[in-house]
Amino acid sequence: MKKLFAQNREVFLSRIHIILILLAVILIDNMLSGKNPTVHVFRYWLPLSGRTIVIDAGHGGIDGGTYHKDGTLEKNINLQVALKIKNLMEKRGANVIMTRTQDVSLDSLNNKSDYRHKRDLIARSDIINKARPDIFISVHVNAERSSTSTRGPMVIYYRESEKSRRLAEFVQKRLEEAYIAAGQKIRARKPLSNSTLFLLCNTDVPGVIVELGFITNPADKSLMVKEEFQQKLSQHILFAVEDYFKKS
Ligand SMILES: [Zn+2]
After folding, report:
1. Of 51, 234, 145, whose CA–CA distance to 226 is shortest?
2. Distance CA 232, CA 175 (A)
3. How far is the CA of 170 from the centre of ligand 1 (A)?
4. Is 210 helix (H, G, I), strand (E, B) or coil?
5. Could you tell me the CATH superfamily of domain 46-246?
6. Helix (H, G, I), strand (E, B) or coil at 156
7. Domain boundaries, the chain
8. Could you give the 3-state DSSP secondary structure of residue 78?
9. What is the pTM of this model?
10. How far is the CA of 141 from the centre of ligand 1 (A)?
């Protein structure tokens, strides 16, 4: 009886060994292929699991975008916020593709136009169309030289896309909440429909252009360069995207 028990025990232990070896092989395989096995398993339970999102930080490199006379450039705010959105969305399980992660323009990626600015925009729409994401978000900063009191976020969508309009409404509302949460008094806006902006007309998935605020308004500008407010804007863009997927 004792012997039989010992034999069973041996069989049991050898099976445990096999299972442990198999687990080790899976872990090593995951590590070699660059995946974090824990993250890989938990991704399936997160709110943005299975979603692919392109984040486009507008302008870059030679193209500074709009500017403030103190030297602040739109391209830097766009990238800082875009990277924050990326981090937040990845933590929620999304597969995030960036059009740029550094201070570069994208015009060298194709030869489809004689104009640098046009090539840059074509490169962005190519990245979006190739990735076939669920949505894209293009991050920008606004300017209104004739009226420094004009302020607040403004979201733009392609007129012919119902899904883009719904996404734009969520983003507009959440961004206004971010300003209010920071103690700012801003007027509520409806998102703007558009049928001429290159990125909106030349992409075949839902997406929005997000103008975070006005660099020509002193209050907006001083908020947009602050790390803390950038984090708040990014968090609220994440909320809006989750609203959109929950209700679509
Ligand atoms: Zn811009």
Report:
1. 234
2. 9
3. 21
4. strand
5. Zn-dependent exopeptidases (3.40.630.40)
6. strand
7. 2-35, 46-246
8. helix
9. 0.83
10. 5
**Residues paired with residue 109 on neighbouring β-strands, in sequence order:** none
Q: In Å, what is the CA distance from 184 to each residue of 74, 123, 175?
A: 21, 36, 12
How remote is the CA of residue 60 from the centroid of ligand 1, in Å? 10
Place of tokens 């507009």: 172
- C-alpha–C-alpha distance, residues 77 and 84, integer Å: 11
If you measure from the C-alpha of residue 215 to the centroid of ligand 1, how many angstroms do you get, rounded to a whole number?
Answer: 11
Which residue in the block uniquely carries the two structure tokens 């929005």? 208
Q: How many angstroms separate the CA atoms of 55 and 59, rounded?
A: 13
Q: What is the mean pLDDT of each run of 10 residues along the chain (248 residues)?
A: 59 68 59 53 79 98 97 98 98 98 98 97 98 98 97 98 98 98 96 98 98 98 98 98 93
Q: What's the 185 CA to ligand 1 centre distance in angstroms?
A: 24
Q: For residue 116, how far is its CA from the centre of ligand 1 (angstroms)?
A: 15
